[in-house]
Specification:
This protein has 241 residues and is an alpha/beta fold. The chain has helices spanning 10-18, 22-33, 39-46, 54-62, 89-98, 102-106, 110-116, 118-140, 189-202, 233-240, and strands at residues 66-69, 83-86, 151-156, 162-170, 176-183, 210-217, 223-225, 228-231. The chain has a six-stranded mixed β-sheet with strand order 3-4-5-6-8-7, sandwiched between helices. α5 runs antiparallel to α8. The longest helix is centred in the middle third of the chain and has 23 residues, at 118-140. It is globular and about 55 Å long. The relative contact order is 0.10. InterPro entries: DUF234, WH_DNA-bd_sf. Residues 94-186 form the DUF234 domain.
Amino acid sequence: MNVTAFLHMEPQRLLMDDMRSSVQSHSLLGVIANGANRLSEIASRLAKNAASLSRPLENLIDLGYIRREIPFGTDPKAAKRSLYKIADPFLLFWYRCVQPYVALLEQDQITAVESLNKERFVRQVAEIWEELARESVPRLKIGNIDWMPAQRFWGNDRDGDQIEIDIVARSVDGEHILIGEAKTGAISVESVLKNLESKAARVCFTENKKLVYACWSAKGKTSRSGTISVFNADRIFDAMR
């Protein structure tokens, strides 16, 4: 956060190197990092027509700065519930925790900015852990099964109520569905399993599938308890190497 630090202005330098128009890209990354994830929300924050943002967003995706998320089981070409997220953890931290407080940092108010960012930083750690959990799925052979890449699911359940599931994946053979949850704090394995079983019963894509449950616990121990596998940070980092 120190304004004299080597990486303090790195995001602007990256955009100037990679984009012909860095100003709009800078604005897009700023609003996405701070909670505008749907195209309509991004357009509203920037007072722009949504159609005019399609190309700039695609450019940022191509450069690996943002990613487009769709719910598990949704056709990418027909997805109207897409969410745009910052793909790079460093850029996410800078646009969420540094850029909004540049004026304070220029006055050397680093401690004050750190205090303001406590909740944001905790949220970012949780988001990155959840993303690492999804990325690790094809490498873990959970339940001795080969898995396709994992996605998040959000949408309506069988009764029309909103539901979110951190980690969902289909087995390579198409016979199994993985239902998982990512946790950064202490967990009760029994409670997590009960919650996952409840969510699995509420969605349609689990019908006629064999279900496998898993929890990614940053502070827990890698283990298997009954019908749920638990993976800790060491196991995930080993798998991602």
